[in-house]
């Protein structure tokens, strides 16, 4: 009955967009609607429809798809609806020399004073410090502007490079969700990594 579920979701999303909610997101502060310099050649900028197609290509890349635990193919329409309906998420596009090279998302839950990070970069632009600069900028927003107490993320246990990256920036391993994601006929573990507001000052 998966096909019926998807039809219901699509109808609900069509009705939502039909009533004028295209790409409606509640941004937490004016700063998130402006460009933020990361380096002399890279910028963190508001996420707009012009970024959708490239994002969909990344999300369907096997490596990123697996890293996010996605279990289905993403298309531009579904992505547009997801962006429009997830009002608790702030999106930024990472650009380098004018090219869209990655995204960073902050899911903010103000009632719990927590946030969840998602970050991905085009393979050709990794190792240049773009991810570090983007993450530091968003953590600054999370802790100093939104006044969140805790920021966390999921990471596949097999992603050793990702664990070294987040550990270097001050994230701590809080636990392992055992066999949390079905993948290629097996179940794989994922980590919960987090940083508290008082810890950000030690690595900012």
In percent, how much strand structure appears in the residues? 25-35%
Quantity of strands, as a count: 8
The portion of residues assigned to helices is 25-40%
Distance between the termini: 48 Å
Q: What's the CATH architecture?
A: 3-Layer(aba) Sandwich
CATH topology: Aminopeptidase
Q: Mean of the pLDDT scores?
A: 82
What does the radius of gyration come to? 17 Å
Q: CATH class, please?
A: Alpha Beta
Oligomer: single chain
What about the largest sheet?
8 strands, mixed
Strand-and-helix sequence, N→C? HEEHHHEEEHEHEEH
* Low-pLDDT regions: 1-5, 11-31
List keywords for this structure.
disordered N terminus; eight-stranded mixed beta sheet; Aminopeptidase; 31% strand; 204 residues; alpha+beta
Provide a concise account of the structure shown.
The protein has 204 residues and is of the alpha+beta class. It has seven helices and eight strands. The chain is 36% helix and 31% strand.
Description:
The protein is of the alpha+beta class and 204 residues long. It has one domain (29-203): 3-Layer(aba) Sandwich (Aminopeptidase), CATH 3.40.630.30. It is built from seven helices and eight strands, in the order αββαααβββαβαββα. It has helices spanning 2-18, 52-59, 62-67, 76-85, 130-145, 160-168, 197-203; strands at 36-37, 42-46, 89-96, 99-109, 114-121, 150-156, 172-183, 186-196. It has an eight-stranded mixed beta sheet, sandwiched between helices. Helix 1 (2-18) packs across helix 4. The longest helix has 17 residues, at 2-18. The relative contact order is 0.13. Mean pLDDT is 82; it is low at 1-5 and 11-31.
């Amino acid at each position: 009955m998966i096909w019926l579920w998807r039809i219901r979701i699509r109808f609900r999303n069509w009705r939502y967009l039909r009533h004028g909610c295209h790409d409606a997101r509640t941004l937490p502060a004016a700063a998130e609607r402006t460009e933020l310099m990361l380096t002399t050649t890279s910028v963190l900028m508001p996420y707009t429809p012009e970024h959708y197609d490239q994002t969909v290509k990344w999300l369907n890349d096997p490596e990123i798809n697996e890293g996010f635990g996605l279990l289905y193919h993403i298309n531009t329409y579904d992505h547009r609806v997801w962006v429009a309906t997830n009002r608790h998420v702030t999106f930024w596009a990472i650009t380098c020399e004018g090219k869209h090279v990655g995204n960073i998302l902050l899911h903010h839950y103000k009632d719990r004073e927590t946030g969840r990070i998602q970050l991905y970069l085009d393979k050709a632009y990794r190792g240049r410090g773009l991810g570090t600069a983007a993450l530091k900028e968003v953590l600054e927003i999370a802790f100093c502007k939104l006044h969140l107490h805790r920021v966390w993320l999921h990471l596949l246990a097999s992603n050793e490079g990702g664990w070294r990256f987040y550990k270097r920036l001050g994230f701590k391993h809080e636990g392992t969700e055992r066999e949390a994601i079905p993948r290629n006929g097996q179940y794989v573990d994922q980590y919960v990594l987090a940083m508290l507001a008082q810890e950000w000052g030690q690595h900012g």
